[in-house]
Amino acid sequence: MATIRYLVRDVATAIAFYRDRLGFHEDQRFGPAMAIMRRGDLALWLAGPASSAARPMPDGGQPAPGGWNRFVIEVDDIDAIVAALRDAGCRFRSSVVSGPGGRQVLVEDPSGNPVEIFAPR
Predict the structure, then answer these.
(1) Which of 64, 92, 94, 96, CA to CA, is 20 to 30 A from 85?
(2) Distance of alpha carbon 50 from alpha carbon 116, whole angstroms
(3) d(Cα 59, Cα 100) in Å, to the nearest integer?
(4) How do 42-47 and 2-7 pair as beta strands?
(5) E strand or H helix at 95
(6) Cα–Cα distances in angstroms (integers) from residue 16 to residues 11, 24, 97, in the given order
(7) Which domains does the chain have, with CATH numbers?
(8) Number of separate helices (H) and strands (E) present in the chain
(9) Distance between CA 50 and CA 119 in Å, rounded?
């Protein structure tokens, strides 16, 4: 099983996005500070501003959501998923692109973290 931690601005909003839009289920919630979501063999830790993961670093740097590292969700019908996400008002970083291994698109969670939706050839 893989575990990924994403910093999020609001845990409840992130839970709704991953549950309602990407098929995760809520496994545990630790108040407004953190939640653990699961999809298949992936555990996604959603760490809000009150979590220990969001505390400033020794050099004063402040952890924040966003960036370009991401996890990938493999799907059979990328066009249907993209249409449903668009209808829900989700923000995309890219349009669907084709490559040697398949088609992919980057969608952002409510905190700006990227999630790659990928349909293999």
Answers:
(1) 64
(2) 27
(3) 42
(4) parallel
(5) none
(6) 9, 9, 27
(7) 2-52+65-120 (3.10.180.10)
(8) 2, 8
(9) 36
pLDDT tens by residue, 42-88:
999 999 999 999 999 989 999 999 988 999 999 999 999 999 999 99
Sign of the alpha-carbon dihedral angle for 74, 80, 83, 89:
negative
Phi first, then psi: give them for residue 69, nearest 5 degrees: -65, 145
Overall pTM surpassing 0.85 (yes/no): yes
Residue by residue, what is the 3-state secondary structure of 39-74? ECCEEEEEECCCCHHHCCCCCCCCCCCCCCCCEEEE
3-state secondary structure of 86: helix
- Residues facing residue 34 across a β-bridge: 30, 47
Sign (positive or negative) of CA dihedral 86, 77, 47, 17? positive
For residues 90 and 107, is the Cβ–Cβ distance under 8 A?
yes
Paired strand residues for 120: 102
Cα diameter, the chain: 45
